[in-house]
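User: Here's a chain of 147 residues. Predict its fold as C-alpha coordinates.
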Amino acid sequence: MAANLTGLDAKIYYNAGSYASPTWTEIANVKDVTPSLEATDIAVANRSASGWTEHIQGLKDGEVSFSVDWDTAAAGFSNLKDAFFDSSDLEMLILDGPETTSGQEGLRATMQVLSFTRNEPLEDVLTVDVTVKPTPNSDANPEWYTS
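Assistant: Prediction complete.
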Protein backbone atom coordinates (compact mmCIF):
# COMPACT_ATOMS: atom_id res chain seq x y z
CA MET A 1 0.00 0.00 0.00
CA ALA A 2 1.23 3.48 -0.84
CA ALA A 3 2.45 5.56 2.07
CA ASN A 4 0.79 8.78 0.87
CA LEU A 5 -2.91 8.00 0.85
CA THR A 6 -5.39 10.87 0.90
CA GLY A 7 -9.00 11.05 1.96
CA LEU A 8 -9.85 11.10 -1.72
CA ASP A 9 -8.41 7.55 -2.01
CA ALA A 10 -10.65 6.17 0.75
CA LYS A 11 -14.05 4.59 0.10
CA ILE A 12 -17.21 3.95 2.07
CA TYR A 13 -19.68 1.25 1.02
CA TYR A 14 -22.97 -0.31 2.05
CA ASN A 15 -23.82 -3.95 1.40
CA ALA A 16 -26.67 -4.44 -1.10
CA GLY A 17 -26.32 -8.25 -0.79
CA SER A 18 -26.11 -10.66 2.13
CA TYR A 19 -23.40 -10.88 4.76
CA ALA A 20 -22.08 -14.17 3.33
CA SER A 21 -22.19 -12.88 -0.24
CA PRO A 22 -21.80 -9.10 -0.08
CA THR A 23 -22.44 -6.69 -2.93
CA TRP A 24 -20.48 -3.60 -1.93
CA THR A 25 -22.00 -0.40 -3.31
CA GLU A 26 -19.99 2.79 -2.93
CA ILE A 27 -21.54 5.88 -1.39
CA ALA A 28 -19.67 8.26 -3.67
CA ASN A 29 -21.01 11.66 -2.55
CA VAL A 30 -19.48 11.56 0.95
CA LYS A 31 -16.83 13.83 2.38
CA ASP A 32 -14.88 14.15 5.59
CA VAL A 33 -15.27 10.55 6.81
CA THR A 34 -13.99 9.94 10.34
CA PRO A 35 -13.87 6.36 11.65
CA SER A 36 -13.28 6.60 15.40
CA LEU A 37 -12.28 3.40 17.19
CA GLU A 38 -11.43 3.19 20.88
CA ALA A 39 -11.41 0.82 23.80
CA THR A 40 -12.30 1.33 27.42
CA ASP A 41 -9.44 1.70 29.85
CA ILE A 42 -9.41 -0.84 32.66
CA ALA A 43 -7.16 0.17 35.52
CA VAL A 44 -5.31 -2.65 37.25
CA ALA A 45 -4.04 -1.62 40.64
CA ASN A 46 -2.29 -4.05 42.95
CA ARG A 47 0.84 -4.32 45.05
CA SER A 48 2.87 -6.13 42.38
CA ALA A 49 3.15 -2.94 40.27
CA SER A 50 5.35 -1.12 42.84
CA GLY A 51 2.94 1.74 43.34
CA TRP A 52 1.86 2.09 39.72
CA THR A 53 -1.59 1.77 38.21
CA GLU A 54 -1.37 -0.38 35.11
CA HIS A 55 -3.89 -0.47 32.30
CA ILE A 56 -5.43 -3.07 30.03
CA GLN A 57 -7.74 -2.68 27.08
CA GLY A 58 -11.42 -3.34 27.71
CA LEU A 59 -14.36 -3.40 25.31
CA LYS A 60 -13.91 -1.79 21.91
CA ASP A 61 -16.31 0.83 20.62
CA GLY A 62 -16.55 2.65 17.36
CA GLU A 63 -18.42 5.12 15.29
CA VAL A 64 -18.09 6.54 11.83
CA SER A 65 -19.14 10.09 11.10
CA PHE A 66 -19.29 11.71 7.69
CA SER A 67 -21.08 14.23 5.54
CA VAL A 68 -23.05 13.30 2.46
CA ASP A 69 -24.55 15.59 -0.17
CA TRP A 70 -28.33 15.85 -0.01
CA ASP A 71 -29.37 13.88 -3.10
CA THR A 72 -32.63 11.97 -2.74
CA ALA A 73 -32.03 10.26 -6.12
CA ALA A 74 -28.73 8.69 -4.96
CA ALA A 75 -29.07 5.10 -3.72
CA GLY A 76 -26.47 5.53 -0.97
CA PHE A 77 -28.20 8.61 0.40
CA SER A 78 -31.60 6.89 0.27
CA ASN A 79 -30.27 3.83 2.10
CA LEU A 80 -28.82 5.99 4.88
CA LYS A 81 -32.04 8.02 5.17
CA ASP A 82 -34.22 4.91 5.20
CA ALA A 83 -31.99 3.18 7.77
CA PHE A 84 -32.35 6.21 10.05
CA PHE A 85 -36.11 6.64 9.74
CA ASP A 86 -36.88 2.90 9.76
CA SER A 87 -34.42 2.15 12.60
CA SER A 88 -32.98 -0.56 10.36
CA ASP A 89 -29.48 -2.00 10.05
CA LEU A 90 -27.05 -1.23 7.26
CA GLU A 91 -23.88 -3.25 6.79
CA MET A 92 -21.01 -0.92 5.93
CA LEU A 93 -17.39 -1.12 4.87
CA ILE A 94 -15.07 1.85 5.45
CA LEU A 95 -11.77 1.31 3.59
CA ASP A 96 -8.58 3.18 2.79
CA GLY A 97 -9.05 2.43 -0.93
CA PRO A 98 -11.27 0.59 -3.42
CA GLU A 99 -12.73 -2.70 -2.18
CA THR A 100 -11.81 -4.30 -5.52
CA THR A 101 -8.09 -3.65 -4.89
CA SER A 102 -6.32 -6.27 -2.81
CA GLY A 103 -4.86 -5.12 0.50
CA GLN A 104 -7.27 -2.30 1.36
CA GLU A 105 -8.07 -2.08 5.08
CA GLY A 106 -10.86 -0.76 7.25
CA LEU A 107 -13.88 -1.45 9.40
CA ARG A 108 -16.64 -3.85 8.35
CA ALA A 109 -19.69 -3.80 10.59
CA THR A 110 -23.44 -3.83 10.65
CA MET A 111 -24.41 -0.31 11.64
CA GLN A 112 -27.35 1.75 12.71
CA VAL A 113 -27.66 5.39 11.68
CA LEU A 114 -27.85 7.29 14.97
CA SER A 115 -27.57 10.83 13.63
CA PHE A 116 -28.92 12.32 10.40
CA THR A 117 -28.52 16.09 10.62
CA ARG A 118 -29.32 18.24 7.58
CA ASN A 119 -27.15 21.32 6.99
CA GLU A 120 -28.55 24.21 4.95
CA PRO A 121 -25.70 26.72 4.47
CA LEU A 122 -26.61 29.89 2.63
CA GLU A 123 -23.78 29.63 0.10
CA ASP A 124 -23.18 25.89 -0.24
CA VAL A 125 -25.02 22.69 -1.12
CA LEU A 126 -27.31 20.92 1.32
CA THR A 127 -25.54 18.14 3.19
CA VAL A 128 -26.34 15.66 5.93
CA ASP A 129 -24.01 14.87 8.82
CA VAL A 130 -24.34 11.15 9.52
CA THR A 131 -23.13 9.10 12.48
CA VAL A 132 -23.27 5.31 12.37
CA LYS A 133 -22.35 2.83 15.11
CA PRO A 134 -22.08 -0.97 15.20
CA THR A 135 -25.22 -2.88 16.10
CA PRO A 136 -25.74 -6.59 16.86
CA ASN A 137 -25.61 -8.96 13.89
CA SER A 138 -26.06 -12.71 14.25
CA ASP A 139 -23.85 -13.29 11.18
CA ALA A 140 -20.70 -11.57 12.49
CA ASN A 141 -19.24 -9.05 14.89
CA PRO A 142 -17.54 -5.85 13.72
CA GLU A 143 -14.14 -6.66 12.25
CA TRP A 144 -11.01 -5.10 10.80
CA TYR A 145 -11.33 -6.09 7.16
CA THR A 146 -8.67 -6.53 4.47
CA SER A 147 -9.74 -6.87 0.83
